[in-house]
Amino acid sequence: MEVLRKIFLILLVLPNLIFVTKNVYGDSNQLFFTGTTLYNFCRDSNIAHQSACEGYILSINDNMFSNEYKNDYKVCYPKGVSPAQLRLQLVKYIENNPDYMNKPANTIVIQSLLNNYKCKQ
């Protein structure tokens, strides 16, 4: 009887755990950074703002590399590329595509990285 009770509890709890984990992992109700916000940080002469921009770009890159998106977005950097270069290229990308200013910042970063460093097939 104890075995049946454990099986029942597992069958009752496990689907709910999976549901909660999936929602926590893949959903948010708030967008904090738009293209405009990121652009203003990235082009600012304040080194702290530039560093925040570079950190944001690197975090998006790391998410692309380690997450489920690694098969969808492939970027290949040449040796020696720096975070500052990525930041300056992002600023140029946004300036050349001003209609992206209101898009989510992470989307713009991905587009910029793919525009500059998409792996050749």
Q: Sheet with the most strands?
A: none
Strand content: under 5%
Low-confidence stretches: 6-25
The Cα radius of gyration reads 20 Å
Mean pLDDT: 79
Quickly describe the structure.
67% of the residues lie in helices and 0% in strands. By secondary structure, the chain is mostly helical. It has a domain at 35-117: 10k-s Protein, Hypothetical Protein A, Chain A (Orthogonal Bundle), CATH 1.10.890.
Question: Secondary structure elements and their pairing?
Answer:
Elements: H1 2-26, H2 35-43, H3 47-66, H4 83-96, H5 105-117
Helix pairs in contact: 2-3, 2-4, 3-4, 3-5, 4-5
Would you write up a description of this structure?
The protein is mainly alpha-helical. The chain has a domain of 83 residues: 10k-s Protein, Hypothetical Protein A, Chain A (Orthogonal Bundle). The chain is globular and about 60 Å long. The N and C termini lie far apart (58 Å).
Task: Fill in the keyword field for this structure.
121 residues; mainly alpha; 10k-s Protein, Hypothetical Protein A, Chain A; 5 helices; 67% helix
